[in-house]
Amino acid sequence: MKKNILPTFLALGLLAAHPIFAQQTLPLYTETIPDSKPSAVQETSVTLANGGVRISNVVQPNLTVFLPPAGTANGTAVIICPGGGYARLSIDHEGYDVAKRLNEMGITAFVLKYRLPNDQSQPDKSIAPLLDAQQALRLVRQQAAKYRLNPERIGLMGFSAGGHLAAWAGTQFARPVGNNPGPESVRPAFLMLLYPVISFNDTLKHGGSRDNLLGKTPTPSQISQYSNELQVTAQTPPTFLVHAQDDKTVPVNNSIVFYQACLRHGVPAEMHLYPKGGHGFGLNNKTTKDLWTDRLRNWLDANGWLTK
């Protein structure tokens, strides 16, 4: 694990000049990576013409840490799961950029580079992403004192397929996956789901996400298990949802059925639906002057997660 260089940056005053500098990257696993096997798979990173970055074939999952400006941290942390249909990670506009915005709220942010389902490198590709999300929650809790975090204020945020992963982790924490799950809780304190893939049923599914995770012919029991709206209980964390009505990639009803499930089980939930915006707009829905991150800040503040 890399040396913590935060004291050096504090001493040099660099955090003031660069308040959203990513201090370090933490490997999720320091020993053998669970649900992995030797393969020729190698991570690839592609920079798009617009500057966007897409990562695929993740073999070594990690967390990139973004610290708030010195003196502004409030003890809350958010782990961010970028989207990409379980085929790639849109790690810039659904990861790093979002972390910087959360830093402005005093939140310590961790961008999760999770493994994508891959038969070549994983014995069971259907659990690899959840293994990594649960390990990220454990690791941040283990590091809570180091980063001056409240271990009871660690939330999970996800975009698109990353939203499926966040909702998956937020509904199935009572049964951690893996052979040696460890003592730390893997329940997020709260969920933030942005145009999320929620359901794998035939009418709501995002076909690519379901095929990549479960294959072309999932069983009815698998479809049910991986449809997060069917897994909500009274213990599901408070949830914040954002979606656009004209989303042609992930139907808006994904968010609506999750909200309805929260309603049935008494889970506090807040949902913001925009008439336009399509899919994958990240921080900025260009069809409206309203910023969903302002709505998020209000929600976080109302629940006490921005209080020092």
Automatic annotation (TrEMBL):
- Which key words are in the record? Hydrolase, Signal
Residue span, BD-FAE-like domain: 64-260
Matching entries from InterPro entries are given as: AB_hydrolase_fold, BD-FAE-like_dom, GDXG_lipolytic_enzyme
Where does the UniProt annotation place the signal sequence? 1-22
Entries under SUPFAM superfamilies matching the protein: alpha/beta-Hydrolases
UniProt GO MF annotations? hydrolase activity
- Tell me the PANTHER family matching this sequence: AB HYDROLASE SUPERFAMILY PROTEIN C4A8.06C, PEPTIDASE S9 PROLYL OLIGOPEPTIDASE CATALYTIC DOMAIN-CONTAINING PROTEIN
From the Swiss-Prot or TrEMBL record, give the protein name.
Alpha/beta hydrolase
Q: Which organism is it from?
A: Hymenobacter properus
